[in-house]
Amino acid sequence: MTPPPEDPAADPAAETAxxxxxxxxxxxxxxxxxxxxxAKLVTSGKIRVNSERASKASRxxxxxxxxTFPLGPHIRVIKILAPGTRRGPASEAQLLYEDLSPPAPIxxxxxxxxxxxxxxxxxxxxxxxxxxxxxxx
Length: 137
Hints:
By secondary structure, the chain is of the alpha+beta class. The protein has helices at residues 12-18, 22-28, 35-43, 90-93, 124-134, and strands at residues 20-21, 47-49, 52-54, 60-61, 66-71, 74-80, 97-99.
């Protein structure tokens, strides 16, 4: 039986533990509800790893890599801090990354009904239009 290598860099198991598939890491970090959804976004070419387009879900990522991808109406910029070991709770998933995204601009709530100064009271037609905008759909 051979003794284990003393240099961790020479151990192939340690190297694979430091690297992880991109789709799997995105799923562990809870950015997507399934690995299939994560893989679809990667294969569509919308995810960048260190400013390079990732086209395969099997692309290996490691701590220190920076991911850029659209998520909803925002662009997320994420720095990987650690590989995931399981898909745990959200509090555990947040320890896997650092969010470098710029803060989202605060948009006014739609249909607040603000009127111009000096516009006076709304007419009956204006009131109906305001009510239609404010009504939940």
